[in-house]
Amino acid sequence: MALAQVIHQGPYLWFSVPRLAPGADHTWTLRPAPDPLWGLGLVATVHATEGIDGPTGVERRLRVASITSIATRLDEFLMQVTVRNVGANPVFMYGMWLSFIRIP
Questions:
Q1: For residue 95, which of 50, 30, 42 has the smallest C-alpha distance?
Q2: Tens-place pLDDT, residues 41-52
Q3: Is the bond leading into 32 cis (omega within 30 degrees of zero)?
Q4: Which domain range does residue 89 map to?
Q5: Of 22, 40, 65, 79, which one has the greatest count of Cβ atoms within 10 A?
Q6: CA distance 14 to 96
Q7: Listed residue (83, 101, 77) closest to 8, CA to CA
Q8: Rounded Cα gap, residues 45 and 9, in angstroms
């Protein structure tokens, strides 16, 4: 019995002014995606960070809204991860971690 290979990457940091508003999405496009995609699983997690000078004093909630696999007309393989602010407060900065899982 062979064990799955797990590769962790991150954190990938995102920050912006203006902030990510409640209900807004931010999409990452990962290219090229690991090849081949067949037999490869992707897990993405996101976490709001503290403010630059310390705690923000407000609750922030983020969700990975979707993970999409794309094969272009030229057979370029891409992965897209969409992050959504599902909280009531804007988010200035967050980190995303990726775990790729290959089943032999």
A1: 50
A2: 889 999 988 766
A3: yes
A4: 5-102
A5: 79
A6: 8
A7: 101
A8: 11
CA–CA distance, 67 with 103 (Å, rounded to integer) = 19
Least confident of 13-17, 36-40, 43-47: 36-40
Residue 8: which residues within 8 A CB-CB, separation 6 or more?
Answer: 97, 98, 99
- Structural domain count of the chain: 1
Compute CA 23 distance to the chain's CA centroid, rounded to the nearest angstrom. Answer: 16
Instruction: Identify residue 2 by its one-letter amino acid code.
Output: A
CA distance linking residue 100 with residue 79, whole number of Å: 12
Please check the confidence at residue 35 and state whether its pLDDT lies above 60.
no
